[in-house]
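Researcher: Let's try something more involved. This one mixes different molecule types, so please make sure each is placed in the same coordinate frame as the others.
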Amino acid sequence: MDPVSRKTITVDVNGEGFEREVDARRLLIHFIRDDLDLTGSHIGCDTGNCGACSVLVDGVLVKSCMMLAIQADGARIETVEGLAQDGELNALQQSFSDHHALQCGYCTPGMLMSATALLRQNGSPSDEEIRRGIQGNICRCTGYVNIVEAIRAASE
Amino acid sequence: MTETIVTPERPLVVEEGDVKPGFIGQSVPRKEDKRLVQGEGVFFDDMKRHEMGFVHFVRSPYAHARIGSVDVSKALELDGVYGTLTGDEVAILTDPFFELSTPPGAHIKDYALAVGRVRHVGDPVAAVVARTRELARDAAELVEVDYEPLPLVLDGEEALKDKVVLHEDAGSNTVWSGVFDWGDFDAALAEADHVVRIDRLHFDRFSSTPLECAGCLVEYNRGTGQWTIHGNHQMPGVGAIWMAPALRVGIDKLRFVSQDIGGGFGNKITLHPQFTVCCLLARKLNRPVQWTEWRTDQHTANTHGNERTFLDVTVPVKADGTMLGFSVRAIDDCGAFPRYEPLGCIIWAQVTPGCYRWRSMRVDFTQVCTNKSPVAPNRGYSRMQHLWLTERIVDIVAGELGLDPIEVRKRNYVKHEEFPYETPNGCIYDSGDYARCLDIALELIGYDSLEERRRDAEARGKLFGIGIGSTLDSGTNNFGQSMILNPELQFSGNNEVATVKLDIFGEVVVTLGTVPQGQGHETTTAQVVAEILGCTPDDVNVRAGHDSYWNSTAGFSGTYASQFAVTGLGAVKGATEKLAGEMKQLAAAVFGCSPDDIELAESHARIKGNPEAALPFMALGAILNANNAGLPPELDITLNVRHVYRPPFEKPDLERKYGNLTLTYATQIHACALEVDPDTGVYEIVDYAAVDDCGKRIHPQIVEGQVHGATAQALGAATHEIFTYDEEGNLLTPNFYDYHVPHALDMPPMKNGYIESESPFTALGAKGMGEGGGAGIHAVCAALQNALGRRGEGPIVWRSCNPYQSVWELMQNPGETRKLVSVESR
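Model: All components are placed in one shared frame. Result:
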């Protein structure tokens, strides 16, 4: 039997259902960005180090460049586009803006998803726990100072 | 914790500006944030076009090789492949990019793809376009290239011998060389009580590695012969100057557009080769093409920072610790092509004596090509390398002569009362108080208790060190400095443009010539406009990003060289003042009074002292744009104005290599305390302070953000980030696995302080300030030097990047590096 090279998958992204046929080798991040046109999640490396593509898959924080789209078949995916409700920023997003926790904004969607995952597990993290929570996300602009402050403030 | 010292003990403002209390100086919410925190920014890779093709480059696995043949036939057979481009085609369709250097560098032929020869690993030899990213990558693997490997040269000093020559047309690896001699160095040597000599120092290769890689989406309009380049070039004005002649078209055929850019740091200034390939492909294939650089490609083949070796450093010193200057032979390694070079051969001269009152400098500077990735103006461009030299000089001299590095700095710093201060090569340091900044830094890290902390660390078996890093962030270039390198070049001065209009419904609309990458230009622009027009920043609509087809670009438009607060906001201020004048004229015509009787406040034009007689902005916009019958014919206004800011520069004296090369000088004084494990070389920064003085701070939060980020980049460069090659020219740190940039857990606690010495030379008293992070490299090197040994005993920290293993090696054999330094006392 030939190996499967394409497959139809069904996913729920931010509460909306999608069914698409994808190449078996398609990365989840390319599926989200190129096929679903949800371009908030970004790509900053080839190696799973930078975390710009971080999303939640069935509630678990995932670097979506490290997962194939077909592995997400049937999953519930949360991306940065799902954080604000009716155009209103959520507390974490507002805190990022208030504390100047973003400059170019390229790492921000992934950073927000990591912080979201952290705060769901731990409602009042210490600074050390916050830094651990975002250690998989690289930011080249801020030195993380204001990101840590923003997450702390959002947890209070 | 972040601490901020708000009030200096004594006045530090050189000149009081006439800015009234208002939005300038306040950390208003950033306009950019709402879209960016929702993932609604538009970066180039977010854009799509019908039937667009994806570009993948075929890159050389050899550092130096002759190209025998390039066969793309198998790639073209693959279903879904749209086409290819090879170096041979590029050589026919384009001219080599314009070279800035005098000979020998002038004779280098630099094309968009390798022609005949590859000169570094990753040098692109062909490009493939296909229906998907994955297919393009597959097809690239089917391109067959015959290489005949050549001997290679990776070391700058070795390259100078020309045993292996990269560019046969140039006949030498030397790009540019020249001697700079200011003051009277021989007299300074004769006057000295001690002469300290340092045989060798080396500033390592690294880059700021913006998280968003380079790329573009290019569309070609066959009817007009015009390309639209949606890309992240951060200096498109200059990019077009390179690309248009190479493509043999007028400059208006290239339209550069960007909205959001994921960091630049100078690494996106030299994208003209890749963008030219995409332009050729879009035309050849008659379809939009999209190229997104892979991280590995960025590291191996796009824009490192300049690597520089300093030889025979000679420092005349008086008995009291006064230094008289220095001489040095500098070898700058620009990699395989001088893509923005040799400008780095003069940019350092903006800060020739560093923060110091040194009056005699002799610098023999040579730039050379090697079989490594080309360089680009990485954050702190060329000044950082030179300032690291000045700081290493201060600390090594202090160490060898048994002087206190703090006292030596204060003795040699330019003094507060000496500003504006003219350096021996004619640069004017506008304002500052370095000693005061140093005091604040020392206070922030608790300098008084350091001996106690040293004892505590030693009790735990650790070595304790403290170091200072002093830098200047020179901003707003006088491009006339390029003429010192090559008198034939027709570049001088600088400019930036803004347009401001009052639209039909009363909207204030601003366009900028700048190309923001996270610096908050929309926000600070709105602050300045609101302040002048008497409205709020929320009322001001600043168009996001850059479009060279807006009427707001000029030759030097872009975002680089620490200048937005001066050039960008200077243009905004000029344009807004013109608009305010026109709005007053219009209101005066309506009310039948003099424009002098009109004031702009609360989003109205109103008669002074009579708030009832007021026209809202909406009325002004509507009257002029849509209801203008009956207006006096002599009322010559458009409510749509353009201003070009042009700083007050002269062309330099080319004979003496003398003149004012930049308009402003922001100061950064950093202090670092660290502990070293003597058994392993592992060290930890335990305390860190960064003090910044960039004159008037338009938006304090943005300034602090820049300080944090620049410091993080410096600490990365000081401790981990280094581009190292194996002997065959393979980059050993080609991705974020091997090239470790700081993560959240790597950053030490940082304390921040500031003073505001307003610039007497700028419209708002502000100075550019984004590039001052080099201080962190200097401070870490100084702290390591301090930790590793006392006077005359410890090793010499002679490289800018000191990973743990290097520190361990330094400790194993201190004599090895001690040999680099000698003192002649008279």
